[in-house]
Design brief:
The structure holds two protein chains of two kinds. Chain A is of the alpha+beta class. Chain A has helices spanning 53-65, 165-181, 222-241, 287-296, 301-312, 316-322, 326-339, 342-360, 371-382, 388-399, 405-412, 420-433, 435-443, 446-463, 470-484; strands spanning 3-14, 73-74, 76-80, 90-94, 103-108, 114-126, 130-134, 141-145, 152-158, 194-204, 214-219, 249-254, 259-265, 275-276, 283-284. In chain A, the strands form four sheets. An eight-stranded mixed beta sheet of chain A has the order 5-6-9-1-10-11-12-13. A three-stranded antiparallel beta sheet of chain A has the order 4-3-14, with no helix packed on it. In chain A, strands 2-15 form a two-stranded antiparallel ribbon. The longest helix of chain A is centred in the middle third of the chain and has 20 residues, at 222-241. Chain A is elongated. The mean pLDDT of chain A is 92. By secondary structure, chain B is α/β, with parallel strands linked by helices. Among the domains of chain B are: 6-256, Amidase signature (AS) enzymes, CATH 3.90.1300; 300-376, no CATH class. In chain B, 38% of the residues lie in helices and 13% in strands. Chain B has helices spanning 6-14, 20-38, 46-62, 103-110, 153-160, 177-183, 217-227, 271-286, 302-317, 336-347, 350-363, 369-389, 415-419, 426-431, 459-472, and strands spanning 41-44, 72-76, 114-119, 166-171, 186-189, 209-214, 257-261, 290-294, 395-399, 435-443, 446-454. In chain B, strand 2 (72-76), helix 4 (103-110) and strand 3 form a beta-alpha-beta unit. Chain B is globular, with a radius of gyration of 21 Å. The chains are: A alpha+beta, B alpha/beta. Chain A binds chain B through residues 39, 42-51, 78, 80, 82, 84, 87-90, 137, 144, 271, 273-275, 278-281, and chain B through 79-80, 86, 88, 93, 96, 98-100, 102, 197-202, 204-206, 232-236, 312-313, 315-316, 318-320, 322, 324-326, 335-336, 340, 360, 363-365, 368, 372.
Amino acid sequence: MNWETVIGLEVHVQLATKTKIFSAASTRFGAEPNTQACAIDLAMPGTLPVLNEQAVHYAVMFGLAIDAEIGQTSVFERKNYFYPDLPKGYQTTQLEKPIVGRGAVAIQLADGSTKSIRIHHAHLEEDAGKSIHEGELPHGSSGVDLNRAGTPLIEIVSEPDMRSIEEAVAFAKKLHSIVTSIGICDGEMSQGSMRFDVNVSVRPMGTTKLGTRTETKNLNSFKFMEEAIEKEVERQIDVIEDGGTIRQETRLYNGDTKVAKAMRSKEEANDYRYFPCPDLLPVIVSDETIEALRRALPELPDARQERFVEQYALSTYDAGVLSSDASTASFFETVATNCGNPKLAANWIMGELSAALNNAGLGFADSPVSADQLAGMVARIADNSISGKMAKQVFEAMWQGEGNADEIIDAKGLKQVSDSGALEKIVTDVLDANPAMVEDFVNSDENKRKKKLGGFMGQIMKASKGQANPQQVNQILLQKLNELL
Amino acid sequence: MHNYTIAELVKGLQSKQFSSVELTQHFLSRISQFNDQYNAVITVTADQALQAAQLADQRLAMGSAPALCGVPLLHKDIFCTKGVRTSCGSKMLDNFIPPYNATVVENFEQAGVVMLGKTNMDEFAMGSSNETSFYGPVKNPWATDCVPGGSSGGSAAAVAGRLAPGATATDTGGSIRQPAALCGISGLKPTYGRVSRWGMIAFASSLDQAGPMARTAEDCALLLNCMASFDDKDSTCVDRDVPDYSASLNKTVKGLRIGVPKEYFSEGLHPGTEAAVKKALADLEAQGAELVEISLPNSDLSVPAYYVIAPAEASANLSRFDGVKYGYRCENPKDLQDMYCRTRSEGFGEEVQRRILIGTYCLSAGYYDAYYGKAQQVRKLIEQDFVNAFKDVDLIVGPTCPSPAFKFGSKGDDPVAMYLEDIYTIATNLAGLPGMSVPCGMVEGKPVGLQIIGNYFDEARMLNLAHQFQQVTDWHTQAPEGIS
């Protein structure tokens, strides 16, 4: 039987506020455990929450970015459950009246088509702390780090609109692109800035009734998400085809060991006993605030992609890649503007630079070769000072921190010879020095001649110590050889 | 010295009739001498108090000290006090020393008020008799076989017993007014949002409000002047100027329209209490106030609504006491579940556990609409009753509680009988209105309280009426037997 996969996502996005959603403690990542947790984060008796206005603004900005209804009166509620990393014994979150209502996100698929994924809502809430386990009990110990407790989150809940892993990944990446472009999240997946819960079900192709879903929680990379969905879809199909039924359950997927397992069934699920938090007033967002935030909203990825196609004459695909997040886009724009050749800039950024950054595990923001440096190099390719091959050497040297392109070109003597007189002389010298090759060339048929050109090129480049402009040499060589025919 | 009102102490301090150190020493020695009789004070901060008194004397010597500078007070043990154990009357917090002051404590500290110690209370403010305290019951100075009321029974008994000239207290369903009535003192619960809740350990966040206890309305005004402030650390605190509550005490009450709710004089009201309250109403009428019979038709719904909303909020508020971060933790937990269960079973008393269970039940899936949802609707109705009443009257006056102080253990087996103690006080908490209680008579040698309910932020008018009443009556000056 053919099966259709149905996927919905719940995405937790940490907001890039300096302080926590209900306290003045810092949200900086990576501090010593429990050094960024104040009395409020520790839920000390008598402490009270005060809402961080910036978190509200960021949530509204997200709503505007996906063209959603903004909840002008949203209400925080208490979600009650006991866990050591949840200091108050409840999470302050939103349920009945979230700050962002229905919206939609457009994703682009590999075949060039686009699809709209509906957003059910997005709500503001506080993150929990982290439980840390060392060794196995009874001799091991468990600790709690509350630095993350109270970090503002928006939880974005999609409709079950995705029908393949490809769509789910494209949606996740698009959300990443949106939240980083509008600057409400740093997008650092490895630090937990974006985490995905995936709801997956399968149904016979052509049917409309949704199958029983499972939820795999807390996936913190696109790759893990992809793997987890793949495994879960396979598992569900196997279960059903073996005559079994899918249990509604929460599951965990370990990206390191590649093992997925059930955590708890629907029957074991908590009754969270939500009720409005009496310590916080309803959040009112005025029309003025919404309009001010709308005006200040940075360029969105879709608009930027269109602009890149128009302004820089890029292909839709290239524009899509380069506009996906704010730091890549701004890197590209600096290189393109400074070097004057956007297409060449795009090729270098998507090729050599992306590969090198990927290998080193770095982002564009931390690139050892700055946008200005890369622009300097691309400019030298564009004006024929250096060949593509030389440029690779220059790039390598810049990556190693040896200076700017011009300095490296000088230091390594990489200047390309483009003077036609000088080039003609080299070509003539090489032809004169190799009469047998010339003879062979003249006596070959047209197909073979093309292949034999490479031999001459090699000799010429060698004679020029690699500095001859290859395009020009090619022209001169062809002209000279044709004269002999 | 202990028979002086706070107003008189302020005059004495400012005119150097006595020093704050002398005054502080006097009250400390009274506490060490008489507290055993009442069990009203559970922590005495003698060294700290004397240091604060010395500083207060220096400020007084320099002149321009705030009005209350040098006056000693007790704080209910629900207010966090930096470096001083804050137990909330519970074993759960018997070892808890906060690293911060409640805003109320801070306001008094800034004003040079001297903290003598912390007062006993019903555990987590849940109780109307002070019998639920981990530290044992407080005894009523008027009849030591009787309860002082609760939950602020320690503060009320301490003021009645002259262990302090005034004390802070909190009121979620009557916890200031009922013990004030039973102990024959004056106590005021302000409008919700008037006084900051920062650092005040939460029972039911939408109902809790801190207020002063003292022997006279004039003293309550002085204390409220300092307690009330806007505080950006409490999102429910209202940003509104604090008037000088002392300024309007002497206005005439002539022409004031006083609503007398007929529902407050029905079955269940002790005849002696009824007689005393009616006499007080007649006194007010004699002073020129106009009595108007009014109806608060949803009054009978206030106790059931309260006992859904308050436990619901409490069930969440008390979840933080889990043995993980501070406070009591059971011995040798075998796993997480065991730690939670035993910590909370051993750390909380019976009444607190009962209310956590009620609250948890009311919020559970399938019951929420029938209980919590319905109770919130009732709350709106009760609020509307008062809004309607205040279209026609300036203040509402009636009994504070149905009967005078009862004997220990007499309502112990029947939680509902205990809950009915607050039948006249709970509605104002649900509506967020201010209310106060002043002594208005004696029944069987025990005090009776007169309740005055005001419109939102109309504390000044309540205090004005209470003060004028105290100009023509002497109930507030009477002292329990043995106090001279």
